[in-house]
Design a protein that fits this description.
Length: 169
Amino acid sequence: MQARTPSESKTILTDLVLPSETNPLNNLFGGELLARMDRAASIAARRHSRRIVVTASVNHVAFNKMIPLGTVVTVEAKVSRAFKSSMEIYIDVWIEDRESGICSKANEAIYTFVAVDEQGTPVPVPQLIPETDQEKERFNAALRRKQLSLVLAGKMKPNDATELKALFT
Ligand SMILES: CC(C)(COP(=O)(O)OP(=O)(O)OC[C@H]1O[C@@H](n2cnc3c(N)ncnc32)[C@H](O)[C@@H]1OP(=O)(O)O)[C@@H](O)C(=O)NCCC(=O)NCCS
């Protein structure tokens, strides 16, 4: 299977914040942003694997900035590492200043997707070759995050999480 680069899975979704998508403070509702990120991440995972993909886990979400009604929001998703059947997807969320047009980072998240066949059984995915410094940094830390996610889900014994343990020894 031919390895792919993160740029081959890069997915960008740009959309406005409409009144029906806000909380009582007139900022974007968190669940709406989660859905937008899930959509972008699933397209990135599909572009990398060219298979059916399902969300296995939301590993990390940081809602660092409020996103007011009317804001133009861009969700950018790329595969940050591929394992056997699972892929870590890193998502950066940008908001655009109306007058200057300058984009600033509002939030980020990390999702795990698994490629499956028509019966929902996991299938292998191509490996990922990171290119930029940021892609290499995200790639290198991804195994630690996978182990943490599996330990928290009760799918891995803490003792087997060698990469995680290495952080503390
Ligand atoms: C995700 C799913 C396919 C995993 O199936 P499974 O029987 O647990 O399969 P496995 O144990 O072989 O795991 C498959 C891969 O997922 C990874 N994985 C499973 N749970 C994970 C978690 N919580 N965090 C990170 N990775 C996870 C495994 O490590 C494995 O990765 P690898 O093949 O790259 O090493 C299955 O749980 C599923 O279909 N879940 C529902 C998905 C869904 O409907 N999502 C939308 C929710 S509304």
